[in-house]
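Weekly puzzle thread! Below is a chain. First person to post its structure in C-alpha cell form gets bragging rights.
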Amino acid sequence: MRHKSLITLGLLALVVLALVAPLSDAAMAVHDAAFERSVGAFAVARGLNAVISLIQGTEINATPFGVGVTMTIGEILDPMNDLVERFSWIMLAASVSLGIQKLLLAVGELTWIKSLIALFALLAAGSLWYRPLQRHLPLVPLLRLFIVVLLLRFGATAFIYTEQLVYDGLMQPQYYASLAVLTDTKGELDAVAARSRQEASSDEGVGILGSLGGSYERMKRFLDINAQLDALKTSMERAQKEVLNLMTLFVALNLLLPLLFFWLLLNLFRWALTGRFDTERIHAWLYLKH
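Winning reply:
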C-alpha cells in the first residue's frame, strides 16, 4: 500500500509540474539570452571582417607606390579574415543548434503532449490500484509511455538549464573578456581606416605612405607607419587568440554539449521503450505484503 501511494503521489506531482509549472517559459527566456550571445559575438566578428576588407581595399587604391606597405597590411590582416570566415561557419552551426533546441521547447509545450502525460498517469494510477485493470492495461507499458512523453515535455528544458549552468560556471568570464578584446580591436581598425581615408584624400594624393621621396617629413611618416603596422600586428594576434577562444566556447556549448544531450536523450528513449523491467519483481513489490 505504501509503495503504491508513493508512486501515485509521484505521478500526480509530475502531472502538476507538466501542466502548471511555467518551466518552458523561463527556459525560453534562457534560450533567447543564449541566442543573443551568439548573435552578439557573430556581429562583432562580422564587423571586424567588414572593416578589414575596407582597410585592404583602401590601401590598394590609396597607395599605388606603397606596394611594400600594402603587402604588409595584407599579410597582417588576411589570417584574421580567414579566421573570421571559419568563425562564421561555426556560428551558423551554433544557430542551427539553438533553433533545434527552440523547436524541442515548442514541442514540449504542445497541448497533446501535456494531455498524454495526464492520460498515461491516470491509466497507470488506475492500473496500480484496480487489479482487474492490469489484465487489459499492464502497469509497466503504461509507465514506459509515461516516461517517453515526460522526456518530450521536459528534455529540452532540462538541457537548456544545464547549458546555462555550464556557461555561467565555466564560460561567462571568457566570453565577455574575448568580446571586449574584439570590440577594442574593431575600434582600432576603424581608426586605421579613418586615417587611411584621410591620407587618401590629402593633397599629396599618394596614400598612407606618401611617395617617400626622401624628405624628412615623409621619412618620419614612413617610420610612423612602420610603428603602426607593428602595433596592428600585435593587435591582430591578440584578436585571433580571442576569436579562437570564442570558437572553442561555442563549439563546446552549442555543438558538442547538444550532441551529448541528443545522444543521452535517444538512449533514454530507447531504455523507456525497450529496456528490461523485471515485471514479476515490480508486481511483488507493489502487491505482496511485507
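Puzzle host: Confirmed. Bonus trivia for everyone else. Residues 139-200 form the longest helix (62 residues).
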